[in-house]
Design a protein that fits this description.
By secondary structure, this protein is an alpha+beta fold. Helix content is about 25%, strand content about 30%.
């Protein structure tokens, strides 16, 4: 998959201490890409956008 147009943003839940951080790209058609912010050239997880939305809803429900 061509991710050259991905606009990455750091998760708002990532800490500022350089620890466990992820970045997501939500500007891709029909999918969301997720990567480790400390390994920009590493592996990228690409999931269907509707699955990502469901995941986020579930996680937010666990933290409220």
């Amino acid at each position: 998959m061509d991710l050259s147009g991905a606009r990455w943003r750091k998760s708002s839940r990532s800490g500022s201490d350089g620890g466990s951080c992820i970045e997501v790209a939500t500007n891709l058609f029909g999918v969301v890409a997720v990567r480790d912010s400390k390994d920009l050239g590493g592996s990228v997880l690409v999931v269907p956008a509707d699955c990502w939305r469901s995941f986020v809803v579930q996680v937010k429900g666990m933290t409220e």
